[in-house]
Amino acid sequence: MRKLFAINLAAIFVLAGFFCWGNAPTAKALIQNNASADIVVGQQVMTSNSSNQGSAASAANTLYEPRGVFSDGNKMIVTDYSNHRVLIYNSIPTGNNASADVVIGQQNMTSRSANQGGSVGANTFIEPINVFYDGTRLFVADWENNRVLIYNSLPTSNGASADVVIGQADMTHNGENQGGSAGANTLNGPVAVFSDGTKLYIADMHNSRVLIYNSIPTSNNVSADVVIGQQNMTSNSANQGGSVGASTLLEPTGVFIENGKLFIADYSNSRVLIYNSVPTANNTEANVVVGQADFNVPLGEWEKFPRL
User: Fold this and answer.
1) Which comes out higher in pLDDT, residue 70 or 6?
2) Minimal CB count within 10 Å: which of 25, 49, 73, 281?
3) Residue 8: burial class (beta carbons within 10 Å; 0-12, 13-18, 19+)
């Protein structure tokens, strides 16, 4: 399997005050550097960091390389990457070592096999990496299955099946770019997903692009409407096969919308791109770059950094 990071992450996840994603309450201000977290989830105490708390099996209170977290101010949702599951906490934990209430991707809290030890399906994951909840629908970036799953409502029972799959023809396939070349309906290592309630955005990492769906898909295998980072839907070369620029991407890993602006974490170009409005045409150039002096870092500069 592909690994997202070259260095194994410790299985520890900390909460500092309240979350500030979605419609959550304002985060508690951290008034000094090196501030301590208030609560730890996935470990019994702040000084422990063993995967699944040192057990070979998972449990409702353990984590193994959590990679994504979301809260709407009431619930908390965590992608438990190496346990091949997503955990839902019906309330935000107020004490250490809290147990999750619902698990998806597995039939129960103690199972942790990729695709439940069998074939890919509507209720399985391999290394889910990011999650977003819009108050109605739950979106999961199912990294190693090369797809994004949509649950039309937040699951309330273990092992729930998704309603819609993006990036694959159906729920029982998981090939990179559907076993062929890149297209408007394919994905290769989707790493982040976001919705503003109307549109859907996916960071399609190994195709070096971000896809925009002008409406949230309600059926399987829907094609994207707009591509950023490539000239068209069938191209997927790093930095479009040439030098880095205002319209190129190299392994994007994050996407977010705020106040009508689009933000993309362009991982292997070591920068963040800002678009002053959401693009409506393919290959749109960014307006602002953060992390670099300009848009044109010399080709090969990114090679100094570890690849995902």
Assistant:
1) 70
2) 281
3) exposed
